[in-house]
Amino acid sequence: MKPAPFKYARPDSVDEALALLQAGGDEAKVLAGGQSFVPLLNLRMASVESIVDLNRLDDLAYIKRDNDTLRIGAMTRHRQIEVSDEIRAAQPLLCRAAAEVGHLAIRNRGTIGGSLVHADPAAEWPLVAAVLDAQCVLRSQDNSRTIAAREFFLAPLMTAIEPNEILCEVRFPVAPVGAVWGFQELCRRPGDFAIVAIACQLTLDDGGTCSTASLAVGGAHSTPLHVAEVEPIISGSQGEAAVMTAAAEKAAAAVDPSGDVHGSADYRRRMVKVLTQRALKEAWAQKRKRALQ
Amino acid sequence: MSREGTGKMLGAQVRRVEDPRVLLGKTQYVDDLVLPDMLAVAFVRSPYAHAKITKIDVQAALTKPGVACVLTGKDILETIKPLRVEFDTQKVPFHKSCNWHVLTPDKVRFVGDLVAAVVATDRYTAEDAAELVEVDYEPFEAVADMESALLADAPLVHEEWGDNVMERLEAQIGEVGKAFQEADCVVSERFVTGRHMASPLETRGCVAQFDVATEALTVWSSTQVPHTLRASLATLLDLAEHRIRVISPDVGGGFGLKAHPFPEEVVVTYLARALRKPVKWIEDRREHLSASLQAKHQIVTAEMALKSDGSVLGLKARFLSDAGGYSSYPWSSAFEPKHAAGTITGPYKIPAFSFETCTVATNKASIGVYRGVGIPIAALTMERLLDMGAQKLDLDPAEIRLRNMIRKEEHPYTTLMGAEIESGSHQASLQQALDILGYDDFRAEQQKARQNGRYLGVGIGSYVEGTAHNSAVFDSFGVKIGGYESATLRIDESGKVTVFVGTHSHGQGHHTVYAQLIADTLGVALEDVAVVQGDTQATPRGWGTWASRSAVTGGGAVTSAAQKLRDKLLRIAARLTEVPADDLELVQGAVQRKTGAVRLLSIPELAHRIIAQPTSLPPDEEPGLDVTVAYEPPPITHSNATHVAALEVDIETGQVQLLRYIVVEDCGTIINPIIVNGQIQGGVAQGIGSALYEQAVYDDAGQFLTGTLMDYLIPTAADVPQVEIGHIETPSPYTLHGIKGMGEGGAIAPPAAIANAVADALSPFGVRVNEVPLTPERVLSMLDRAQTNPGTE
């Protein structure tokens, strides 16, 4: 299980990396944490002419807060997000999702940018980016653009990034006042990719009535799926059982899953329903817990 | 370290002497071996399940810089014999043999079958060149399922057989018809076990080197059976056995998988000789999963007849087993169902039993022996049927077992299959396991949880584990291998001891236990005993380590050898000191007079005289302190145990969460509780894999779908609870020290105990739990089935 030959470069600056990509054309690929890409190379399921290794680009590893926006550099490791007090205070759902990525060794090496560009529909970061309406900042040698995560993911392992671009930063909105969230992941063993995962963020008023809602599904569709149709069902409600059931049915109807050895398409669709209800319950339970504190 | 002040090492909690090396990374595995000018092999393997090879073009690969050679099946058809399992046809007339060519010359029979070997300066180049070997295939319809393999129009895996049946055997013992006529209650079920894999941390691998001066070969292989491998290499390559030295260095787990000689080892050895250069092959994980050996895949249809008091009157079972494309040497790929049938009665008194075993060839990787061989599915079948019977008769699952188990005073008990279970503690182990759980409290908690919509369950799995089969047993199986074990013991001039053994420790801790046994017999310290293994040039002919045999057979050989040298030391010491030999003993490195506990002579002093000053010896004594012993154990040694699983089932997702896992084990006299506990914990981990996670999956076309550890799921430390262990020691009346083997037991009962616990948890729904692994989706579909057809169980 050895990779086919490839050229390798480890630039010291983003500009140098972008120049290498520009020169490499379609046959150059970016290496971030390597937790998915390197196994694909070793299995010869992917082969490339050249690799541009971003691991020396420390200026892409940062966590910053600008008012209502969290800016996370693409080379930030999962573990740095998991343990960041700043993120925990601003958008705790990110810490929760980070903790579910693989195992500790993987989280120490893997990066948020790598995971987003790899675009596994069952991975945590694409799901969270979709539910929170994150913005992806892409740069090429002559251009810089920002694209919404909800438009970034096109298909399994396929995104809107161009071969000459690097994802440099992800921007998440800071959780608004009254925000609660739910995060439910079903996997065979802790650390595995999700069979199905659901993330939601709601804003509740003091009485527990939902004013805004966002919910997304991972693992049950070709991309992480932001299910806008559930939002009018949940908004204005107080999390009544019938509302959650209706929202869960809507989410299950929205997905078009494919099956594998860990779960058939039917099972995944069914789990979307189960986990959607659990995620919404978790969100409202957070509200009750806060009220008690 | 002493046990209750007796000063004995037997039974002491001795820390494993192996561990510091392992923990500090000082072990040397095959892949750590680097020789000058060493070449690497990459194999070209079939992407088809079943196809004819119409053409192989190696030109492009051969011209790639760094490539030394490309070998195909046609090149070696005349020079390397195929692996072929041949039974004694008098004893096993119903077995069909097949050729397993080390590189297939004509037809591929599974995804991963060996088509060509590419040798290059390094593995990277070899893999690049392997991609350049052009093979044309004419694909055939695949035999992808063991039931369809039996259909009249099924494609044939081995044309010369006329059908796909490798082996079929029927037998009836006792009055089965009468048992079912007289039954108050009959339960029946169809059970399916997953296709599991041993998947040790270290995959297979070997290095071969040819010495041009002596024309001798040295083969380093990650094997459990160095001597058996040497014999196979000699036979298949038509070489004199003494020109081959097999060294099995540190081995990172085997679990039975590495108790087989493999085609790759034969090819690598051939290449080293042909190319006059060292050649290395290290199996990667994808090769391991798709093309080593798989295990334990059976469909069992079984029926049990019971009286209203719960006593079992009789049992009928049909074991259908999916052997894969070839037959593994030496037990064959048909051993799994036979061993299931032969062991199914377990700890229970079953008066009548009829069975059929049927093994069919399919287009999958072949079946080999893996921890527990056949017994896990036998236990699953028996233990589920008992629970089903108990439910029908409104008996407690514990109660029905206690009624049917062999009682302590009934030993030695001869089973229907003719095995003598020499001693045991079946009821006591069950009772103790339930006590550790707090059975009544758990039942109360279960009731309470159900009212809150939570589904807890408890399941029992009891079994008997036959270990350390002797030569006569293998002879009766028609298998041409020995059950004895050998040891050479040497005391050197400094009084230190070296033992050379034919067994092979690849995690078990033999160094520690053999040293304990020798220390007790020779009165020396543990650290004064060195253990040499895994080198055919250094050790006497032995049969390696598998089937939980080493404590009994290797331990027996080591102890017998130590007793012989102890007797010689005491005999000579008696002459030198003029104290009667029966008043002498070896204690703390010295010859001591028992009367008055007087130290007379140190062992180093005595050893020095026997070795270096032989003129001082009595004339009828040979100089030197070397002895070789072959120890033949009693026919089969039986350990017993009860496992109890407590778990919770999420009825919305089908996920099973283990809460507690309890094992009460009786392996006779325990040599070292730390090692016994480690075997239990590790075995249970693999058994949990069988019960909940692991399955090698093929699609309808025979394509292999679980080629990475993201697809083939092995439980991790996070998925395996700390096993709560209890011990009972009922010594064997026949073995030295009363020791019984126990290495496989941990892996035997988890499918049974966990399946029973899932059925118990879901009993309000009447769910049929009859298939492992119990994946979330499978559990949910069992629930669905129960809700569509209520009252089927």
Word description of this protein:
The complex is a heterodimer of chains A (293) and B (793). Chain A has 293 residues and is of the alpha+beta class. Chain A is 37% helix and 24% strand. Chain A has three domains: 47 residues, Uridine Diphospho-n-acetylenolpyruvylglucosamine Reductase, domain 2; 116 residues, Uridine Diphospho-n-acetylenolpyruvylglucosamine Reductase, domain 3, CATH 3.30.465; 114 residues, CO dehydrogenase flavoprotein, C-terminal domain (Enolase-like, domain 1, 2-Layer Sandwich). The mean pLDDT of chain A is 97. Chain B is an alpha+beta fold and 793 residues long. Chain B contains 20 helices and 28 strands. In chain B, the strands form seven sheets. Chain B has a seven-stranded mixed β-sheet with strand order 3-5-1-12-9-10-11. In chain B, helix 8 packs across helix 9, helix 9 packs parallel to helix 19 and helix 17 packs across helix 19. The longest helix of chain B has 28 residues. Chain B is globular and about 90 Å long. Classes of the chains: A alpha+beta (293), B alpha+beta (793). The interface between A and B is medium-sized, with 25 and 28 residues.
Short description:
By secondary structure, chain A is of the alpha+beta class. Chain A has 12 helices and 14 strands.
| Rough outline of chain B | globular
Instruction: Give a count of the beta strands of chain A, DSSP E runs of length 2 or more.
Output: 14
Number of strands of chain B: 28
Radius of gyration of chain A: 19 Å
Question: What would CATH call the homologous superfamily of the largest domain in chain B?
Answer: Aldehyde oxidase/xanthine dehydrogenase, molybdopterin binding domain
User: What is the architecture of the largest domain in chain B at the second tier of CATH?
Assistant: 2-Layer Sandwich
Mean pLDDT reading of chain B: 96
Which radius of gyration of chain B do the C-alpha atoms yield? 28 Å
How many individual domains of chain B?
3
Distance between the termini of chain A: 54 Å
What portion of residues of chain B belong to β-strands? 15-25%
Q: What is the CATH class of the largest domain in chain A?
A: Alpha Beta
Write the element-wise H/E pattern of chain A from the N-terminal end onward: EHEHEEEHHHHHHEEHEEEEEEEHHH
Structural class of chain A: alpha+beta
Largest interface: A-B, 25 and 28 residues
